[in-house]
Amino acid sequence: MQIQSNFIVMRKKKKHLIIIKAATNAALMISFLFFVSSTCSKKNTLKCISLCYSFPTNVYRENDEIKIYTLKDTISIFYYSDYLIYRLPPTVKFETDEKIKGTEPYFIYNKQDSFGILFNSLTDSSSGITCRVDSFLFNRAFRVKDIDLPVDSIWHLMEVKKDKDGIVIEKYGMMKQGDEMSIDTIYYYYSKKMNKIEYSFSKKLDSISRKKLFKARFLFNSKFSTSNKIVLPKREISFEIREVNPPDTKEVFLIIRKYQSIKKI
Whole-model pTM? Predict the structure, then answer.
């Protein structure tokens, strides 16, 4: 899976730092990216959902201590009529980790079409780049496959609890410890209040639980890495759906108008 360069940012380290490239972390991520299916139930009503994600990208050594760099970011997904608009994370300044407002790429398509248009930013004056929807979502928006229940022969349902807000949390544990690539604990979070959200990590699990699976966490215990010859700290991969009020509505409608004018040509 390709990860765009503006997604991965590392702070400048002192000269004595030894950066350890953890290529295996890319494989960790790929196994748990989910197919995201989404529709808009009400015509001509602008809605917005945030897809928040977090995963380890690099392992490095600092002052004889092994540390993990974890990428945390958000993709905003807007729905209006038959249009879906993806706003991706902006460019980040290497030196300061500062996000540069106005550099967010936008991808827009009609649900009836197989192709959409990518604009490099809101001020992109070109006709954009035509992309196949499936390919774009796979490469840039984490579209892979539905999340499913852990396999019974490998995982044990350790605990099910319900918090004060009615959120049901399932905890699964690995029956047998694996290597540094193996997940040790899984948490699934379900909410009945979010059932009206059609965006889904798993239609299957939503149907079984009669609640919305809105968050999933995959935890890795601290383990010795045979490839890097070091003890890796604890790591976590997480995905979460959040329903939010649409921000920057003028910008979204500007993208829609640009798309419509291009399609008329």
Answer: 0.78
